Amino acid sequence: YTRTYTAIEKMRNDGIEFIGYHLTLTIKNPEIKNLEAEYILMNKAFDNFMRNYKELKPYIVGYQASKEVEQSKEAKERKEFHPHIHVLLLLKPSFSAVFIIFEQCS
Hints:
Blueprint (H helix, E strand, L loop, with lengths): L1 H12 L5 E8 L8 H18 L7 E11 L2 H5 L4 E10 L15
Antiparallel strand pairs: 1-3, 2-3
């Protein structure tokens, strides 16, 4: 995260304006036997979202994503895992004036 902090400080010093948003994306907890396939699918969906979500694209200044897999005590008993992605989105200030409707894809 040192590189991310350094890049953000450089952007600020260069006069680049942005607002930081924290986005967490998750999927239904898969069982251990399905974890790898579901993790790959989650990552592909995220990559697709960042490349192709045309309503968001004009506002992106930058982003940093962290992918995690956790397991709570309860999930361990159910033999499940909790994969998720934390995203720091740096968006142009004009984004805050825009209302975007996200549609859930099935």
